[in-house]
Fold this sequence. Notes:
This protein is of the alpha+beta class. It folds into three domains: 5-170, Beta-Lactamase; 231-316, Helix Hairpins, CATH 1.10.287; 325-480, Heat Shock Protein 90. The protein has helices spanning 5-63, 67-80, 104-118, 168-216, 231-280, 288-316, 329-346, 366-383, 414-417, 441-451, and strands at residues 84-88, 94-99, 128-132, 142-151, 154-164, 325-328, 350-354, 361-364, 389-397, 400-407, 456-461, 465-473. The protein has a five-stranded antiparallel β-sheet with strand order 2-1-5-4-3, with helices on both faces. Strands 7-9-10-12-11 form a five-stranded mixed β-sheet. A two-stranded antiparallel sheet has the order 6-8.
Amino acid sequence: xxxxxxxxxxxxxxxxxxxxxxxxxxxxxxxxxxxxxxxxxxxxxxxxxxxxxxxxxxxxxxxxxxxxxxxxxxxxxxxxxxxxxxxxxxxxxxxxxxxxxxxxxxxxxxxxxxxxxxxxxxxxxxxxxxxxxxxxxxxxxxxxxxxxxxxxxxxxxxxxxxxxxxxxxxxxxxxxxxxxxxxxxxxxxxxxxxxxxxxxxxxxxxxxxxxxxxxxxxxxxxxxxxxxxxxxxxxxxxxxxxxxxxxxxxxxxxxxxxxxxxxxxxxxxxxxxxxxxxxxxxxxxxxxxxxxxxxxxxxxxxxxxxxxxxxxxxxxxxxxxxxxxxxxxxxxxxxxxxxxxxxxxxxxxxxxxxxxxxxxxxxxxxxxxxxxxxxxxxxxxxxxxxxxxxxxxxxxxxxxxxxxxxxxxxxxxxxxxxxxxxxxxxxxxxxxxxxxxxxxxxxxxxxxxxxxxxxxxxxxxxxxxxxxxxxxxxxxxxxxx
Length: 481
C-alpha cells in the first residue's frame, strides 16, 4: 500500500489549486489589461483625429476653402485612423456621415448608441468619450469620441469619430491557450513535486510512527535517522531525545524495581526466617532477644526505605511546599556537626571545620536545607574510612554562599559521577547490606536544591577525596532573585 498517498493527494491538490487560481486571476488581470490598453490606443488615435479635423473646420470657415478640399481632407483622416467620421450641425443633428472604415457595418449600431450617451454632454465638456462593449461584443468594443466646434464661443457644430477595437479577441484567446498549456505543465510539475515532498516528509513520520508503536510495546531502543536540519529534522532529533530519555527512565525504573525488591525481600526473608524459627523452636529461648534485635533492625531499614520513597513521591507530585525565611547557615552547620559527633569519634575521624563565627544569613527553607546537610554529613561519615578526615567549609561569592562537605576514602568513579544524583543509584552495585542506604537520599537532596533554584555538584579525585558542594542565596540578595 502506498503509504504516502494521503499526504501526496493533499500536497497535489494544494499545488494544483494554487496554480489554477493563479492562472485564472492572471487571465482576468491580463485580459482586462489588454482590453483597456487597446481601448486606450484607439481613443488616443481618434482623439488626435477629432482635434485635427476640428482645427481644419475652423480654418475652412476662416479661409473659405472649397467643400471638396474639406471632404478630401476628412476622408484622408478617417482612412488614416481606420474610423468613421460624423459631422453634426449647431443643433446636434448629424448632417454628414463619412464612413471609410470597411468594418463600419459591423459596429454602426453600437456607434449610434455611443452617440446617444455623449450627445447631451458634448455642450458641457469636450472632448467626450463613450465605449460600447455589451451584447456579446466584449472583445470588440466600439469607441466614439465627440469634439465640439465653436467659433467665438458660439457652437457651430460637432465632430464625432468612431472606431472598433480589433485584435483583442485573438490576443486573449492566445493568452488562454498559453495558460492552458502552462496549467498542464504546472500540473505535471506539481505532481512530481508533491510526490517528492510527500516521500521526504512522510518517510521520517512513518519511521517515527513505527518507532512509537515499538516504544508502546516497551522497546525503547529506537532511533530515527536525521538527514536534514529542517523542522522535520528537528522533530526527528526531538523524538530521538525523547526515546533516549524514556530508555533512561525505563532503565531507572527497572533498577528501582530491582533495588526496592532486594531491599524489601532480604529483610522480609530474614524476619520471616527468625519468626518461623522462634515458633517452631529452632531458635532457643535464650537466643530470642538477639534475634528480635535483628528483626527490629530490619524493620527500621524497611521503614527508612518507605519514608524515603514517600518523600520522593511527594516531591515528584509537587506536594512539596517551601517555607522561605531568613536564618544563619553557619548555626545550622554547627548543629549538624553536633548531631554526628558521636559517629565521627567512633570511627576516629579527623574533623576540620572552617566556618565564620559571624552570622551568614541566607534566604531558604531551613527545614529542607537541614535535610540536605544531614544527608550529606551522613554520607560523609558513612563512606569515610576509619582514621580518615572530614572537612566542612563555606565561601561567599557575590550574592551566594557555597557550602562544601568533603570526606576521604574510596572515590566515586568518574563514569558514576553523572549518575550520583539519580534516583536509586548506588556506586556499590553489589547491594552490600553492611553499607546502609536506599539510594534515594541524594536524589531528594538534588530536588530540594533545585526547588530553591540553586546548584549542587560533586567532585571526587584521588588525593582530594569526595566533595559535595551546594549554593544558597544570601538574605541581602533575595530581592534580586
